[in-house]
Specification:
heterotrimer, A alpha+beta (about 90), B alpha/beta (about 400), C alpha/beta (about 290), A: about 90 residues, alpha+beta, Alpha-Beta Plaits, two-stranded antiparallel ribbon, 2 helices, 5 strands, C: about 290 residues, alpha/beta, Rossmann fold, 8-stranded mixed beta sheet, 11 helices
Chain lengths: ~90, ~400, ~290
């Protein structure tokens, strides 16, 4: 008998951290994106994905709304919008 | 094969036969000979193992933790201050359910600093979750290591085990022992197969943070497993007897208990002295006996009860203290009988042989004599009252 | 979801520099990696039972012994004959690496184990509430070195951990930053290609402890480097072999965006002392770009 001992790999995916957002969320404008992948690399939650220009999306189930993606985008193609006013 | 060996050399050879893959220890008297011999064994190519010379006992225990967590059998040894320095890691190993096997050369603890034998170090670690065996002589010390690996690595147990042998008395004493062959050891002890380990083919997370929602169950499970070990230990010693021809109970050993009126309960090498005194007194018609406790953890409550319930007078020898309260072994033995239908009329507590003070046959005879009086509470034997008069104005 | 070995759903603060760095380190090392972690923010937010964000084998034991546990893992891997197939990374924060874990780290480096040690430097004991550590910079306001009526905060400079690691005679030491992710990954890849003990120190901003906005993490990390306060250097076989050249910015630009330095902004004498630290770094490591006109 061992009790709580070990976690399975990647089991954190069941913890949706999206509800942490209180102020803002990112909006991907998909106008000037150059697919530099800076947003993907910078996101601390690993929840941005995309392949090719103007295809990048955020997984709102995990996004904590830190705003780093918007701050880092060289083309200012990501905007932080109010959490309530989502499309 | 019969050989005359120093205790440390005998244990090192047994460990070699158990084939650990990682050995890591930090030197402390009187464990040093064991580890030095193992270093020579590895250096001569007689054991394929990684020998890791660490910078402290805390790291020695951490190294063997990491090795067993990676699915490789490991070994370490320590005493006294070293045991305390690694204490945090020892509790961690037990909680993580990793079968690390360790020899502790039981030694007194500082302060005052003293390198000679008593049980204060190992008895202080009885709460750690480790299974704790005490050896009476060098042969038993060797055999308990084999049982320890087999028991700790059992899938239903997965607990670390420490084999305590009295420092200097057993580690540096010489005895003619029966050294098993590799074939015999391999028959009794298969290679370690970890049910969970660090493996890139099957990634797992070991040692997570556990909040109040989950923690109690982990500790309950640890406690339950200690209880389950009580049932498994005699089964393993029975198997041991078939392979090696030596019989142990593994939990307790009774000596001349059958019609005894006075029985001493004790652990470790002092039992050898007590047996000799019992032989002398029995020859004079005194009905005396000994109950040796081999397994301090798990504590064999039922075995002790069954062995001693009809004995009128008990004396429990402690070579450790729980400062400010009852001597530890005596407290646990007394607790065995509370609320039970049968119990001894007297259970006295004696503290003997701290810091390597010799326990002579006269000391034991004195205890048998003192048992005639009322219940004694932690009576210290062989004290020198003139030393107690020292003052430091 | 981007392909990563550091899954989402961990409970790091929004904008955590350490979670960013940890993911970059792990993805650079790849799936044949075993992680050994000290107690700290990273371990706590990434492995809260029953959830773990690690897609590789991971073990956490105690606060100070990751380097020693990793030594045991590495010895076991060697024993199993898999030494060439598995990367072993031991990790800890600044407190567990430079203070309580220094002994185990020093032993691991001295014994020559094939382990990469990564120190995530957020410059205080963040997980327990922003207490001062050996890597807390000069004049920093922490909860145990607070700025007050008779104090300007932490009075001691950072313990020179990269130099200490280098003094052990190990083949590779590097300083990296969350603000320069590609550089960090390059250094990790380089480290794991070298046999022997390696030490990488990663500057990891903590929005909570440093008191800056969550979206400023990368910017703050970059400013630390660009002012010369956090030189990104590399040592190979004991010799300084690389440094990131900068066009130095005044330290005030770095200090003014963090609440932990706000008590200094009206004390030009203290700012001058910190500028001196930066200038010494620039001189010592040759950080100034050659093309920069004086």
């Amino acid at each position: 008998m061992f009790g709580p001992l070990i976690c399975k790999p990647g089991s954190s995916k069941s913890n949706k951290t999206g509800p942490w957002r209180t102020e803002s969320r990112p909006k991907f404008l998909k106008k000037n994106c150059i697919a530099c992948n800076m947003c993907v690399a910078a996101c601390p939650e690993s929840c941005i994905s995309g392949q090719g220009k103007n295809t990048y999306e955020v997984d709102l189930a995990y996004c904590k709304g830190c705003g780093i993606c918007a701050a880092v985008c060289p083309k200012k193609d990501i905007e932080m919008i109010k959490e309530e006013g989502a499309e | 094969m019969k050989e005359l060996l120093e205790g440390s050399m005998a244990v090192a050879e047994i460990v070699r036969l158990c084939k650990p893959g990682v050995i890591s220890a930090y030197p402390i008297t009187p464990q040093t000979h064991i580890v030095e011999e193992l270093a020579q064994i590895v250096a001569d190519g007689r054991l394929n193992a990684q020998f890791v010379n660490v910078e402290s006992e805390h790291s020695a225990a951490s190294v063997v933790l990491g090795a067993v967590a990676t699915g490789v059998r490991a070994y370490t040894a320590t005493s006294s201050q070293g045991l305390f320095y690694m204490a945090e890691v020892l509790y961690n190993i037990a909680g993580m359910r990793l079968p690390v096997i360790m020899t502790t050369a039981a030694r007194a603890i500082s302060a005052p600093i003293n390198i000679w034998n008593d049980h204060q170090d190992v008895v202080s670690l009885r709460d750690s979750g480790w299974i704790q065996f005490h050896a009476e002589d060098i042969q038993e010390a060797m055999d308990l290591h084999l049982i320890a690996y087999r028991l700790g690595e059992d899938r239903s147990i997965m607990l670390p085990v420490m084999v305590c042998m009295d420092g200097f008395i057993l580690t540096h004493g010489m005895e003619t022992v029966d050294m098993p062959s590799q074939e015999q050891v391999d028959k009794f002890l298969s290679p370690y197969k970890a049910p969970y380990k660090l493996d890139v083919e099957n990634p797992l997370t070991l040692g997570p943070l556990v909040d109040p929602e989950y923690y109690m169950e982990a500790r309950f499970a640890l406690n339950k497993t200690q209880e389950e070990a009580l049932a498994l230990i005699p089964k393993l010693t029975a198997e041991f007897a078939k392979v090696f021809g030596r019989t142990y109970n593994g939990l307790v050993e009774g000596y001349q208990l059958k019609d005894a009126e006075k029985v001493i309960v004790a652990m470790g090498s002092v039992c050898g002295t007590i047996k000799e005194v019992i032989d002398e007194l029995r020859a004079k018609g005194k009905k005396v006996g000994l109950l040796k406790v081999t397994s301090l953890r798990p504590f064999p409550v039922n075995a002790i009860y069954d062995a001693l319930k009809n004995i009128p007078k008990l004396a429990v020898i402690d070579r450790a203290l729980s400062l400010g309260s009852f001597a530890p072994l005596s407290a646990e033995v007394k607790a065995v009988f509370f609320g039970k239908p049968k119990q001894p009329k007297n259970i006295s507590s004696f503290v003997v042989g701290l810091g390597g003070r010799d326990i002579t046959k006269d000391s034991i005879k004195e205890i048998f004599r003192l048992m005639n009086g009322k219940d004694k509470q932690a009576e210290f034997i062989d004290l020198k009252p003139e030393l107690l008069k020292e003052s430091y104005e | 979801m981007s392909k990563t070995l550091f899954a989402p759903g961990h409970t790091a603060c929004a904008g955590c520099g350490q979670s960013m760095a940890a993911r970059l380190v792990l993805d650079a090392a790849g799936p044949n990696t075993i992680i050994v972690n000290n107690t700290g923010c990273l371990e706590v937010f990434s492995t809260k039972y029953p959830e773990s964000c690690w897609e590789v084998p991971f073990i956490h034991s105690l606060f100070e012994n990751a380097a020693a546990v990793a030594s045991g893992v590495e010895s076991a891997i060697k024993y199993l004959g898999k030494a060439d197939q598995v990367n072993i990374i031991a990790q800890g924060g600044d407190g567990s690496s430079a203070d309580i874990g220094l002994q185990a780290l020093s032993g691991m480096l001295e014994r020559g184990h094939n382990i990469l040690y990564v120190c995530y430097d957020n410059e205080a004991y963040m997980n327990t509430g922003v207490q001062r550590s050996g890597l807390t910079p000069f004049d920093t306001n922490t909860t145990t070195s607070p700025a007050g009526a008779v104090s300007i905060g932490n009075l001691r400079p950072k313990k020179p951990m990269p130099e200490i690691a280098n003094a052990h005679g190990i083949p590779y030491v590097a300083v990296a930053s969350s603000g320069f992710g590609q550089d960090l990954q390059r250094k990790v890849k380089k480290a794991i290609s070298i046999k022997g003990p390696k030490y990488i120190q990663v500057h990891a901003p903590c929005p909570l402890g440093w008191r800056h906005e969550t979206n400023m993490t990368l910017q703050v990390a970059k400013l630390a480097v660009e002012t010369g306060l956090y030189p990104l250097v590399e040592y190979e076989n004991g010799v300084l072999s690389g440094r990131r050249q900068i066009t130095p910015k005044p330290v005030e630009e770095y200090l003014k965006v963090q609440g932990r330095f706000k008590h200094l902004l009206n004390k030009p004498e203290e700012i001058r002392k910190i500028q001196e630290i930066a200038d010494n770094n620039i001189r010592k490591y040759g950080l100034k770009s050659e093309t920069q006109q004086v």
